[in-house]
Amino acid sequence: MTRPIGIEAFYFLDRWSDDQAVVFDRAAEAGYDGVEVSLVAGGEIDTRRIAAAAAAADVDILCSTGLTRDLDISSSMAEVRAAGIAHLIGCLEASAELRSPILGGVTYAPWMVFPDDDLDEHRKRSADSLNKVAIRAASLAVDLCLEVLNRFETPLFNTVADCLNYIDLVDHASVMVEVDTFHMNIEEDDLAAAVVLAGGRLGHVQVAANNRRPPQYGHIDWPPFRAALDAVGYQRWIVFETFPNPAAETGRATFSWRPLAVNLDLEAREAAAFIKGHLA
Q1: d(CA 206, CA 62)
Q2: CA angle at residue 161 from 176 to 278, to 5 degrees?
Q3: Could you report the per-residue pLDDT of 101-151, keeping only the tens digit for each?
Q4: What is the bridge-based pairing of β-strands 143-147 and 102-105?
Q5: Do 117 and 110 touch, CB atoms closer than 8 A?
Q6: Bridge-partner residues for 104, per DSSP?
Q7: Can you tell me the distance from the alpha carbon of 280 to that of 275, in angstroms, rounded to the nearest whole number?
Q8: Percent residues over pLDDT 90 in the chain
Q9: Residues 240/9, Cβ–Cβ less than 8 Å
Q10: E-strand spans in 161-230?
Q11: How much helix, strand and coil, in percent to the nearest 5, is found in the chain?
């Protein structure tokens, strides 16, 4: 079984506003089949230009996004939920134009927002909103993936088991689980068992070491993780994600206070080789 491998665009970039297309050639040269790009700014992007740049570099595109307080689909305010739903639908449409099979990321609540009222009510409102988004996702043949984050980044769910309970509330086949080994290392009792639990509802996999360095470092036990992917028949993407520069906006915003990679291109190549040898 061979799975395609990708890299998050912001591994190479310093600012969220940087042109993500400029990394496509670097990613291809490092050995990746695709690049995960962010649509956090919304669906109003030049998809033709980005698609052309990806084709020229011979890489595929995967898409992710996020929500802000003003786009919170778990909000008690209907107009805020409506704005969030519109944002996600716009991102889905851009994803389809870029031929991404998924729209991943934190698609269910704002990142780093911790409500002080009833979380169950937030989950219910979020799930109801996401059901509306999922209907559009199905019509576009783009799966909506929910990244399971650690407790310090979201309160809605932090394990695959709790994500699956949330997906049951959404009640739509286009909604799937997205795992990231950095977050899993904090929250899961057993990374491989969590993959098996997700089973056929596993839609996307991101990898990094336990300390969010490239996956060839750290102490994660990769062979059982790969065996679990094989056991559930996972044939989708494996994407390396980290934000390595502590002096840059992207690194500081994601709590990188020390360099997580020193030689970006070299360590990206080594990560690609590691993923191909140990996970793909």
Answers
A1: 12
A2: 70
A3: 999 999 999 999 999 999 999 999 999 999 999 999 999 999 999 999 999
A4: parallel
A5: no
A6: 64
A7: 6
A8: 97
A9: no
A10: 175-180, 202-207
A11: 45, 15, 40
Q: Scanning the structure block, which residue is given the tokens 């990613």?
A: 27
Residues facing residue 206 across a β-bridge: 180, 239
**Where do the domains of the chain lie?**
5-278
Rounded Cα gap, residues 197 and 193, in angstroms: 6
**Would you say 129 and 74 are in contact if contact means Cβ atoms under 8 Å apart?**
yes
What's the burial of 110, exposed, middle or buried (CB within 10 Å: 0-12/13-18/19+)? buried
Tokens of 206: 């991101």
- Count of other CB atoms within 10 angstroms of residue 259: 13
pLDDT at 1 over 70: no
Cβ pair 136, 89 in contact under 8 A = yes
pTM here? 0.97
- Positive/negative CA dihedral, 185, 188, 189, 192: negative
> What is the CATH code for 5-278?
3.20.20.150
* 68: helix, strand or coil: coil
Half-sphere exposure of residue 217: CA atoms within 13 angstroms, side-chain side: 15
Report which of 1, 34, 41 is spatially closest to residue 19, judged by C-alpha positions.
41
